[in-house]
Amino acid sequence: MPAFDVTTNPTRLDGTRGKQQTIVVTATNRMGRQVMARAVAVVNPPSAAAWVTPPPDAQRVFNQPNATEKFSFGFMVDANAKAGNYTVRIDVVDVDNQDDNFGQSPVLAVQVPDIVVAPPPPPPPFKWWILVVAAVVLLGVGFAVWKIFFSAKRMPNLVKKPYAEAVASLDTARYHIRITRVDTLATDTAEYERAEVVRQSIPPKTKFASDSNPLTLVVQENYAGVPDMTGADQNKAMQQLGAAGLDFNPPQTQDTTAHMPDEGKVVRSDPPKGTFVKSGTKVTIFIRRFSQPCVGTQCIKVVILDQAVLRQTWERSKRVRPDSL
């Protein structure tokens, strides 16, 4: 079984010379643990390797089993490329053990056609309206030149785009764009996926300045939802926290002076159930315990599971948890 499941969109590339294309690579971690991985393009023959542009964040951390990451590669056949058949494949490898832990995408075929030079048509007989057409063309060329060299390009809307795709869509060198990434946990996590742009400092449709355009992109962090552990015992609560990708503080007791139906069960948590927090946040659970004053040597002993046992239960749940959030 490969260490990563790797798919691409599209599954076949256009061999037209000079056509800009994007290869969206989806990789899923199948190693059962967190891993640092890198996506690389394998081009055959190797002389065409320059046709593929890797994303700026080709090396990332898959922070949990079954975690999925997307990489956006650029692809464009060189204008002077020879006709023939080429192939592109994307490999995702474990940075620490590339020879043993890797995954490969299906091979993408690229067929570059022959350059067909059509013979020039015979010149038409000269007519007066040719001068009119020439004047219109001249005006059109003038407008195009003005549009390209004198009309400032405007900032696109990057919100809800994956960070890598947002960066790839900007001509940073031409417009002197300096990007600063700020990771944060958005208040409405249901609206944004992980690694999506939440806010941009330069509003959409704003004209770029001629000298410098500092751009801050606020990006959604990995997050998890605090599960509903009410009524569960400590072992079950540890399993739920591990499966959600959350850590835990030592459990706290919530005493009562009378026996309660939920004695020994979780009554609440901090943060409360349903709260979205950063992955790995420590959660405190509160256990209902019956307590009464000691009479002579007869005292009720409250038994709390050893912290090492809870930690083992939490670790086992974390290794097998689904990537559901």
Summarize the structure.
The protein is of the alpha+beta class. It contains four helices and 18 strands. Strands 3, 5, 7, 8 and 9 form a five-stranded antiparallel sheet that branches.
Tell me about this structure.
Residues 294-305 have low confidence and may be disordered. Strands 3, 5, 7, 8 and 9 form a five-stranded antiparallel beta sheet that branches. The protein is elongated. It has 325 residues and is of the alpha+beta class. 16% of the residues lie in helices and 32% in strands. A hairpin with a 7-residue loop joins strand 7 (84-94) and strand 8.
Count of extended strands: 18
Average pLDDT metric: 83
Total discrete domains: 3
CATH-defined fold name of the largest domain:
Immunoglobulin-like
Question: How do the SSEs run, as a string of H and E?
Answer: EEEEEEEEEHHEEEEHEEEEEH
Strand composition percent: 25-35%
CATH class call of the largest domain: Mainly Beta
The CATH architecture classification of the largest domain is Sandwich
Taking the alpha carbons of the first and last residues, their distance comes to 25 Å
Low-pLDDT parts are 294-305
Oligomeric form = single chain
Radius of gyration: 30 Å
From the spread of the alpha carbons, the general shape counts as elongated
Instruction: Provide a count of the helices.
Output: 4
Largest sheet: 5 strands, antiparallel
Helix amount: 10-25%
Class from helix and strand fractions: alpha+beta
